[in-house]
Amino acid sequence: MKEKADPQLAPVSEPQTSSVVSVDRVTLPDLPAIIAIDLDITGSEKPEYWYGLYAANQSDANSPFLAAHVDAEVVGYIVGSFRAWEFGAPRCGWVHAIGVKPDSRKLGVATKLFEELARHLMAVGATTIRTMIHIDNQVLMSFFRFQGMTAGPFIELEMSLDALSETGRDIA
C-alpha cells in the first residue's frame, strides 16, 4: 500500500487541494473579509485604510486591488500600483500589501494573486515589480524570493521625527 505524502513537506508551489482559486478586482462586499484577514495577520484592525484604498482604486486602473476567492469566500488580497520616477526609479510596479487567510495558505492563493497583479502591471507598461517588507518577515521574504524577486538597487532609510525634534532644530 502506497503511503500518502506528508502535506507539510510539499513544495510551496504545489496546491494542497483541488479547490478553484479565482482572482478578481475587489468589490465593496469583499472588504469586511479583507479587513478580517489583515487583522488576523497583523493584529491591527484598519477599516478606514481598507475602505479608503478601495475608494481610491475605483478610479485608478494603474493600482490593482485584487481579491482571491475559493467557493465564493474571500481568502486573500493583493494591492499594487504602477508608478513612475518615484525615488528616481523608472516606471515599475509595486506590491504594497498581500495577505492570505492562514487556513488557505497551501492552496496557491498568494502565487495566483501575485501572477494576476503582474499581468495587470505588465498591461500598463511595467517591466519590473518592487516591494518593501520588514527585515524580520521571513514568510514574506521566502514568498517573494520564490516568485523570483531579489534584492533591488535601493536602500530604505528612515528616522524618527521625535529624534529630529530632540536635536533642537526648529521644524515646526
CATH-defined architecture? 3-Layer(aba) Sandwich
- The oligomeric state is single chain
**Average of the residue pLDDT scores:** 87
Strand order of the largest sheet: 1-2-3-4-5
Report strand %. 15-25%
Looking at CATH, the homologous superfamily is Gcn5-related N-acetyltransferase (GNAT)
Helix content: 25-40%
CATH fold-level name:
Aminopeptidase
Query: Could you tell me the radius of gyration in angstroms?
Result: 19 Å
Q: What kind of sheet is the major sheet?
A: 5 strands, mixed
What sequence of helices (H) and strands (E) makes up the elements? EHHEEEHEHH
Properties at a glance:
alpha+beta, 5 strands, 5 helices, disordered N terminus, globular, 5-stranded mixed sheet, Aminopeptidase, 31% helix, 172 residues
Topology summary:
Layout: E1 21-25, H1 31-42, H2 47-57, E2 65-70, E3 73-83, E4 92-100, H3 109-123, E5 129-131, H4 138-146, H5 161-166
Parallel strand pairs: 4-5
Antiparallel strand pairs: 1-2, 2-3, 3-4
Account of the protein in words:
This protein has 172 residues and is of the alpha+beta class. The protein has one domain (19-166): Gcn5-related N-acetyltransferase (GNAT) (Aminopeptidase, 3-Layer(aba) Sandwich). It contains five helices and five strands; from the N terminus they run βααβββαβαα. The longest helix has 15 residues, at 109-123. Residues 1-15 have low confidence and may be disordered.
